[in-house]
Amino acid sequence: METKQKKLGIIAGGGVLPQVLIDYCRQTKREYFVLAIENNADKNLFTDDIPHKWIRIGQAGTGFKLMHEQNLEEIVMIGTIHRPSPADLVPDLRTAAFFARIGFKALGDDGILRALVKEIESENMRVVGIHEVLPDLLVKTGCLTKTKPDKQALADISRGVEVGLELGRLDVGQSVIVQQGLVLGVEGIEGTDKLIERCGTYLRKGVGGVLIKLRKPQQDMRIDLPTIGTKTIENLHQSGMRGLAIHAGNALIVNEPEVLKLADKYKMFVIGIEPTEVKK
Length: 280
Known about the structure:
Number of domains: 2
CATH architecture of the largest domain: 3-Layer(aba) Sandwich
Low-confidence stretches: none
Mean pLDDT: 89
CATH superfamily of the largest domain: LpxI C-terminal catalytic domain
Largest sheet: 6 strands, mixed
Strand order of the largest sheet: 6-13-11-9-7-8
Order of helices and strands: EHEEHEHHHEHEHEEHEEHEEHE
Number of helices: 10
Structural class: alpha/beta
Helix content: 25-40%
CATH topology of the largest domain: Cytidine Deaminase, domain 2
CATH class of the largest domain: Alpha Beta
């Protein structure tokens, strides 16, 4: 006898991943409900036929009330969340208590997300990663494109892994761009797309730069996994980059066939790497 799937709660930020997850729930007839984060989630996505409510980041009390009303048992936190404005952060009592308890200013992004997972699970709900629902999104090991990284690209990837792991350990960012052995930039508050755009202005003559995108060493697999899509490939191409390396088994590719088709069109490489196995 087939076990009925638990109703899924989706806490939705920006980007296309919430849409991917909603489409999956519809296709498999899995019950779901979305808490869409204001000023982050795409307003065009949430039509009347999608069960959802909008909340601010500071409305944890409202969020938990809705979760219980909807009888949610499993929660996925997915999509990008921009740094909140003061208006977004005006807290209700539950949020104020949460911030007071975790010491909000003392934590980086990853620490806050881990604390939020703990808070949700204290309400008898289980937080799951999107990879547990859609395992096919995880990056596979090895070169995924027709174009392969050459000797210089492999050296740049090795340098990027070294820097990226340290960057992640400090909870700063997930991405670094290296060209011909030089670190052109590391990801900060601006995110990967802006990093690519910025580094495009620093390129030297000769072969282009390489984006290296890794999961932070201490990062919970259920939250904020490194993600690439067709937009990443377009941005890399427009900024004069030659390819990207991404953490195999620890990162996501949205619409992989289209991503690889586009990379092949631009003669760029996409390679899934295991950082501990990258040669120094």
